[in-house]
Design goal:
The protein is of the alpha/beta class. The protein has a single domain, classed as Rossmann fold (3-Layer(aba) Sandwich). Helices cover about 40% and strands about 30% of the residues. β7 (about 135-145), α6 and β8 (about 160-165) form a beta-alpha-beta unit. The N and C termini lie close together (about 10 Å). Belongs to the purine/pyrimidine phosphoribosyltransferase family. PyrE subfamily. InterPro entries: OPRT, Or_phspho_trans_dom, PRTase-like, PRTase_dom.
Length: about 180
Amino acid sequence: MSDDAALTARVRAASHLTGTFLLRSGKTSTEYFDKYLFEADPELLAAIVDGLTGLVPAGTEILAGLELGGVPLATLLSQRTGLPARFVRKKAKEYGTRRIAEGGEVTGRRVILVEDVVTSGGAVLDATKVLRDDGALVEDVLCVIDRSEGGRKRLAELGLTLRPLLTRAELDAAAAR
């Protein structure tokens, strides 16, 4: 089994759940990839970040992890690449700095968004709008899993390129092995 196939199998085994799940998009699914299960395993998280490192496009200046699942990914990816990290909240906090993007400025910088799982792309679209309003140059999105449920198309409509480590088809193929 190749290293890529082994990682795919590990991610699926760690995070694939069945049942009835309400997704952020509002849809109901009988399958769910629980990112906390792969992010809480230090060895698996390290292997995932190793894979993501190769997907960071040249010229990236800042890694922006989306609350909450993108934060550990961006943190470890920052440590591996030497690129600074930012942490993007779902909404600005109502005290202190009142910022939506924590960790430093983004204005005029090439920012890549880091997310755990992309389904419809809603959280990424929200973060892109806010960061672009703050003057960030946002063109790319890294994610661990693309559920292949329309997110890539929606992101492309805003000029975003989705760079997934794993796709739903790859995870399904791993289950068939």
